[in-house]
Amino acid sequence: MLNSVFELLFKYRPVVFERGHLVFSAPRIVSFVVLALALLGIVVLWRYRTTGGRSSLRIRVGLLVLRGAVLVLVLVALLRPALLVSTAVPERNVVGILLDDSQSMQITDDGTVPRADQLRQLFGGSTSPIPAALAERFQVRFYRFSRSAERTGNPEALSHDGGRSDLATALDDVRRDLAALPLAGLVLVSDGADNADSSVTRALLALSAAEIPVYTVGIGSERLRNDLELVRVEAPRVALQGSSVVVEALVRQSGSGRDSLELVVEESGQRLAAQRFAPPGDGQATTVRVPVALPTSGARELVVRVPALSNEPITRNNERRLFVSVLDRTEDILYFEGEPRFEFAFMRR
């Protein structure tokens, strides 16, 4: 009902106004005339307000408002308002489709169908349902991305071996590649596992400023039902022979698992240290610290891992590696103190 009334008064439905821009098509000379008339009208209305009469104040104010409204309508009509709506010309505008080519697309959320196969069913080629529908109105261009985006002519040939999903860099690369073409929009197909340092918000703001819409298609589950992840592993890069270093790991859990978990530190398959800890809970993370003795010198490659849960869909994120350089020498220590303390006597011995 309200839409019909709006269309009767303003010729178009509200959805058309949402997609368009209101502009004034009157010549510049008419704009100056309208401005002069507006100033003259304001002066006349002000003088009318200060002029006395037999009518009451309420009636005078009402008449002033009505005459002011009529003046505004006349001035707006002289400016010739118009609604400018942008529309895509069939088969001339371009739509870019970005396909995630990272390793996370190999995950099988339901235990049977990998995410990569779901992507191929929807966007495998020009005969797939979504690209076929877009090709009726646009020129479709496919891109594959992991660390960066690159043009691909065969979406079915994706390898899904990329080590990173950098959504921001992919959007920037495609925007620059299609900058000289009439770009109608971008379709981003991904599982959303963005593990890059760049800001997606910055890339979206650049596209928004160019009035380029971005449509997202999610593949796979939003959260893994049963998964452990080593988010971060840290340890000193340099240590002395015979000393111990503390390996600090941030462990995140999705779903429920065992009542007790174990963080293991190994080197060349040999177990160096381990620390049991309580699970952090669904969607939570906890920090685990493990002291590791380093009796021999040299470059040491430590493998930090959390044993996989039963039926865990992805185990690549259960392990991380770090390097520690163990020095076989005696270090000189320069100790600063505000004033001599009792322990200073033992340091001189």
Structural topology:
Elements (H helix, E strand, L loop, with lengths): L1 H9 L3 H6 E5 L3 H23 L6 H22 L2 E5 L8 E7 L14 H9 L5 H7 L3 E7 L3 E3 L15 H11 L5 E8 L9 H10 L4 E5 L8 E8 L3 E3 L3 E11 L6 E7 L2 E8 L7 E9 L4 E8 L13 E9 L16 H4 L2
CATH superfamily of the largest domain: von Willebrand factor, type A domain
| Computed CA radius of gyration, to the nearest angstrom | 34 Å
- Number of domain units: 3
Question: Could you list the spans in which at least 5 consecutive residues all have pLDDT below 50?
Answer: none
Shape: elongated
Biggest sheet, in brief? 5 strands, mixed
Please state roughly what percent of the residues sit in beta strands, choosing from under 5%, 5-15%, 15-25%, 25-35%, 35-45% or over 45%.
Answer: 25-35%
Helical proportion, percent range: 25-40%
CATH fold call of the largest domain: Rossmann fold
Distance separating the two termini: 95 Å
Q: Please, what is the average pLDDT?
A: 80
Return the CATH architecture of the largest domain: 3-Layer(aba) Sandwich
How many helix segments?
9
SSE class = alpha/beta
Kindly state the number of beta strands.
15
Task: Please give a structural write-up.
This protein has 349 residues and is of the alpha/beta class. The chain folds into 3 domains: 2-85, no CATH class; 94-218, Rossmann fold (3-Layer(aba) Sandwich), CATH 3.40.50.410; 227-327, C2 domain (Immunoglobulin-like, Sandwich). Helix content is 29%, strand content 30%. The chain is built from 9 helices and 15 strands. The chain has helices at residues 2-10, 14-19, 28-50, 57-78, 115-123, 129-135, 167-177, 200-209, 344-347, and strands spanning 20-24, 81-85, 94-100, 139-145, 149-151, 183-190, 214-218, 227-234, 238-240, 244-254, 261-267, 270-277, 285-293, 298-305, 319-327. The longest helix is centred in the N-terminal third of the chain and has 23 residues, at 28-50. The N and C termini lie far apart (95 Å). The model has no long low-confidence stretch (mean pLDDT 80).
